[in-house]
Amino acid sequence: MPGDSVFHCAEVVPVTTKHQATPAVASWAIALSGILSTTALAVVTAVSALASDGDVHWYGLTGLAAVILVLVVGVQRVSNDPTIVDPVARAILALVNRLRRRPADHGLDQVRAFVGQLGGARLTPGRGIAAAVFAVLNWGLDAVCLWMCVRAVSGEPINPAQLLLAFCAGMAAGTVTIVPGGLGIIDSALILGLMAGGITASTAIAAVVLYRIISFGFIIGVGWISWLIMRRRHRLHTAGN
Fold this sequence. Notes:
The chain has helices at about 5-20, 25-50, 60-80, 85-100, 110-115, 125-155, 160-175, 185-195, 200-240. By secondary structure, it is mostly helical. The mean pLDDT is about 75.
């Protein structure tokens, strides 16, 4: 869908809150998962660049790692002592309320309540490492799917490192587009990347079409079916009460 990240957040938060997760914890989980996903893609790209004897922009990976560290440590500090955000919250609210012509501390209680919910956020080192590993596997297995699609449509040899670079280029291109599912953007980047790796144009197009049917079409279908089932169960549960 257009604006799929907004749709994602709008659906994930209500679902997680139904399972006793507070809105603050749900928001924290969504933010951390997004950062982990971006970092994992950067790691996969760095690995592919090293395998291809290319240059790795270590400052980018270092920056992403620093963001994750600051986010995790910051949330842990706030969850242990919610009052530390009071000065910042007061300053921001005072500025906003001045524009809205309301009392300077208007909305402060809601902010405190939201921050207080972060006390339920607990990320142990073991689970943090597991989340990072799964994030890398998510991209790695997706790249394996692309490789299998290339093998399915042709017996042409392809350098795995070049295929991985083409995959990373396509996924990176898809992160900066508002087109639903990155249609046209990701596909073009993948085709050009595969061709740069020595694959003929016809094979690259066929492989990318097959890959997108699997990774986009099938997944979207499963997602919508799951969403409809969840909606139906919710209506039945509501009617039963």
